[in-house]
Fold this protein.
Amino acid sequence: MPYPQTGPLRVELEGGALVLTLDRPERMNALSRELIRAVGDAARTAATDDAVRAIVLTGAGDKAFCAGADLKERQSFTKDDVRAMLRLYRSEFGALDRSPKPVVAALNGVALGGGLELALMCDLRVAAAGALLALPETGLAIIPGAGGTQKLPRIVGEARAKELILTGRRLTADEALAWGLVNRVGAPGQSAREVALQLLEPILRGAPIAQAAALEAIDASFDVDLASGLQLEILAYERTLVSEDRDEALRAFGEKRTPAYRGR
Ligand code: COA
């Protein structure tokens, strides 16, 4: 596997899903510089790795998905170090955000601050029943700096984003589900990783070029006006139209069988 086998990020391939596990349980999987870089590197490698059809991002243990910035590392930071960290969030979380493969955050416990922001970079989110989600930054006299102020309103709407960011209150998994902040919540005792892999089952059987084109077109819809977005949709459609998988879909329909997609 073209991924590091040691370090703060555990990487496993399960079926076509690359499972990335934030693995610093003694610090509630908090985001050190090394961990942030490892997430970005894995996302970049996975983007061109044909063995990877989708990515699951989760945390080690059952307490924390990620408790945000590593506040112990942060104690020795200068203000310029913090500024550099914000740039690192952009580049490394950005690699996950722009991934052409579907990315699911599996929130196995608390997702706080930068931890929740990391989950907001993913296409889909699922949570274990006991997970708690919050952006406590304004209570610490700062603001979310890893994309939270931009991503959260796009996902839950302006009013709810402002409530979460200004109050810092912790949402339960069920509240997050009601807000559309997570797509699914596990049954009591069910792991978030299991919920994520279940959600991915039909996606892993799907057509990779179509999925990448759909993600790109949807993501673009937040950045451009409607006319430009509709134009981008045509360009994205074109990529699917010339794919072998599109021909396979029509053939399989005619032959009354399940299509076998190859990502070509
Ligand atoms: N960075 C570094 N270490 C952290 C951490 C963080 N963000 N969050 C927790 N830890 C460490 C704790 O210091 C503790 O280490 P210690 O045993 O050496 O003291 C260990 O993880 C366990 O944390 P603890 O607070 O004892 O566990 P808990 O179950 O009572 O609470 C949290 C867990 C995550 C709710 C709590 O630790 C917390 O609120 N952390 C801060 C989260 C935060 O504000 N993040 C946003 C920053 S903008």
About this structure: Strands lie at 9-14, 17-22, 54-59, 64-66, 103-107, 110-112, 124-127, 132-134, 171-172, 184-185. The pocket of coenzyme A is lined by residues 27-28, 30, 63-64, 67-72, 110, 112-113, 136-137, 140 (CB under 6 Å). The chain has a mean pLDDT of 97.
